Amino acid sequence: MENIKVVAELLAKFSLLDWIGLAWFLVCWIGIELIISYGWLGYATLHGEANKLRLAWGRAMVQREQRIIDSSLIGNLLQSISYYANTSIYIIGALFAALGALDQLIAMASELPFARAPSREVAELKLLILFGIFVLAYFKFTWALRQFNLLLITLGSVPQMPSEEEIEHFSLKFAAVNTCAGNDFNRGLRAYYFGMAVMSWMVSATAFIISTFIIVYVLARREFVSPVLKGLLISSASGKTE
Fold first, then answer.
1. Chain centre to alpha carbon of residue 155
2. 134 near 92, Cβ under 8 Å?
3. N or C: lower Cβ tally within 10 Å for the chain?
4. pTM (predicted TM-score)
5. Which are the contacts of 49, defined by CB distance < 8 A and separation ≥ 6?
């Protein structure tokens, strides 16, 4: 009971605007994840088009006699994800260091324009939330790494001269594992974006709300109306956007 009372007292130090900002943050993050995963009113998405290309890659891979190019492509993806996983560890270590220098961090944040200096307890909670986000990103990246390793195993399991049934079977299997790995990598990247919004929370709740809106706008624009999506929608037959 005493521990619950301490936690309740800590949470009571958040202002109403802080709670509104946190609720807005969670709604935006969960909402954009659902929209990207399931689409929006039938509109084409970068997520959906990338999944189509993964299936096309699988069908092309199965019918190649030499699959060195496919293993090289997966190897390049593994290097990119390893970079982000290592970076996440450095960020987590830096956040631990920031907890030890919290007074200086609060003093620095309070000097920024429109900043509202939080209490030490509130600043600790905000840093812990930020810490949790980058831990989540680390888990997503490392899980994506393992899945891309499984993709290499899937690639190695494809027979040299597959039958018609095996072509479709291994194409679908390759695309499914590739899609799962790519999705977790993208979720890790989005955690980085939303982590930046929480960083602005150290300045003020208003900055937190505005930053969250900007990040969701950027992610939605890239997913639904980005030039790369228009490029992927170009029909090979007509040369025009579908």
1. 25
2. yes
3. N
4. 0.85
5. 229, 232, 233
| Cα 25 from Cα 100, distance rounded (Å) | 26
Question: What tokens were used for 24?
Answer: 């807005």
Which pLDDT belongs to residue 161?
Answer: 80
118: CB partners within 8 A, 6+ apart:
106, 109, 126, 202
User: Exposure string (b/e) for 188-217, b if CB count within 10 Å is 16 or more?
Assistant: bebbbbbbebbbbbbbbbebbbebbeebbe
Q: Which two tokens stand for residue 140?
A: 């997503």
* CA 159 – CA 173 distance, rounded (Å): 13
Q: Where are the domains of the chain?
A: 13-232
CA atoms within 13 A on the CB side of 234: 8
The predicted pLDDT at position 109 comes to 62
Of 75, 61, 72, nearest to 159 by C-alpha is: 61
Tell me the residue type at 123.
A
What's the rounded Cα separation, in Å, for the pair 30 and 193?
13
Mean pLDDT of the 167-190 span: 93
Percentage of residues in the chain having pLDDT higher than 90: 50
Average model confidence (pLDDT) across the chain: 85
Query: Alpha-carbon dihedral of residues 226, 229, 233, 238, nearest 10 degrees?
Result: 60
Kindly report the CA angle at 214 between 210 and 215, in degrees rounded to 5? 120
